[in-house]
Design a protein that fits this description.
Ring cyclization and eight-electron oxidation of 3a-(2-amino-2-carboxyethyl)-4,5-dioxo-4,5,6,7,8,9-hexahydroquinoline-7,9-dicarboxylic-acid to PQQ. This protein has 11 helices and no strands. It is mainly α.
């Protein structure tokens, strides 16, 4: 590929989101449009918990490799957003409020016993990607946050409208993300625009975002196959 200007690179990144972000996935459309039953929503929340719980570990692997205090301070904030600064705070704790509200036992959720195999493999692949790839690629892989406010707005409004078993309190995880995700994506996008200076680096950046979109898409593929089509694998959550 030829060298892109920063604006062209950003446009290419946004095009990946327009084509590949998981708001286009049939399972998300079913979730948003009220086409799932309570057990299927439980399965979604249970499996998504593993992704939420591993995000701080993913960020910690990158934090350890960042070369400056300025970058480490910026990335440390992401860990605090998810893990909180004391027990009962942060995004992971708020996600457990969601699974609590859906009637899932907290011990069972935290045990990870009911995960779909594809959930575990996909999330672990993402954590390993951030650990093993370049700092530039690792930061670029977080750029799905460019598109998350749209899916959050759809998800919250749709679930509140269609499901009588959720409430604004149940969905409390999502409210802070409406401000955290744009803040984080603004930083990551500026970093990528500044540091992807060769065609090879730009290709790496675009590939990293495609990979992350594939992780999120694969998780929904697995949920759709197991809990809509009815092919629940051995050992996974059975409603």
């Amino acid at each position: 590929m030829t060298l892109l200007t920063p604006d062209q690179l950003e446009a290419a990144l946004r095009q990946i989101g327009a084509e590949r972000y998981h708001n286009r996935h049939p399972f998300h459309r079913k979730l948003h449009d009220g086409k799932l039953d309570r057990a299927q929503v439980q399965a979604w929340a249970l499996n998504r918990y593993y992704y939420q719980a591993r995000i701080p570990a993913k960020d910690a692997t990158l934090l350890a490799r960042l070369p400056t205090a300025e970058l480490r301070r910026e990335w440390r904030r992401r860990i605090e957003d998810h893990d909180g600064t004391e027990p009962g705070t942060g995004g992971v704790a708020r996600w457990l409020m969601l699974t609590d509200g859906l009637g899932l036992g907290r011990d069972y959720v935290e045990s990870l016993d009911g995960l779909l195999p594809a959930t575990r493999f996909s999330v672990d692949a993402y954590v390993n990607f951030v650990r093993d790839q370049s700092i530039l690629a690792a930061i670029a892989s977080s750029l799905t946050e460019l598109f998350s406010p749209t899916i959050i707005s759809e998800r919250v409004s749709g679930m509140l409208r269609h499901y009588d078993f959720v409430s604004e309190e149940t969905l409390a995880y999502f409210t802070p993300r409406l401000t955290q995700a744009p803040r984080d994506s603004d930083f990551a996008l500026a970093y990528v625009r500044e540091n992807a200076r060769t065609p090879e680096q730009q290709k790496e950046v675009l590939g990293a975002l495609e990979f992350k979109c594939s992780v999120l898409w694969t998780m929904l593929d697995a949920l759709d196959y197991a809990y809509v089509d009815g092919h629940i694998p051995p050992g996974a959550f059975v409603p």
